[in-house]
Amino acid sequence: MNAQVKIDQLLMRLTPILDRERLGLCNLDEEQLRQLLPECRCIFREREGICALLPRQIAENAKLTVEDDYRQITLHYAAGVQVPGLTAIILRELADAGIPVNVVSARCHEHVLVRDCDSAHAMQILSGISNRLQYS
User: What confidence score (pLDDT) does residue 82 get?
Assistant: First the structure.
């Protein structure tokens, strides 16, 4: 089976799952990280400091600055699948629609972070990938 056929088969089974909770990217110091670690969805240690993805309500309660609201879309197609180019195709579709994206690759799934205001459009596009392949 060639790579494109395998990618198409996986994309036909793509089920994007939109998390209802609004999230925010926040800068934390070490003490804030210790306090908020159980609530963090993801943590990045960057050269500029610690960046954490937190539920918006938690960030507001901790009086943290949140620049924008994000929603998490989990890309569910098959657990543990690693096919080169699969995520790139999905990101290209979103980029072509003008939707900025942050991607977090975890053990079982890819998670796409989009601005809250783009989440409905992103879900339409992601659902459309699978539908287009199934009916073409």
Answer: 67
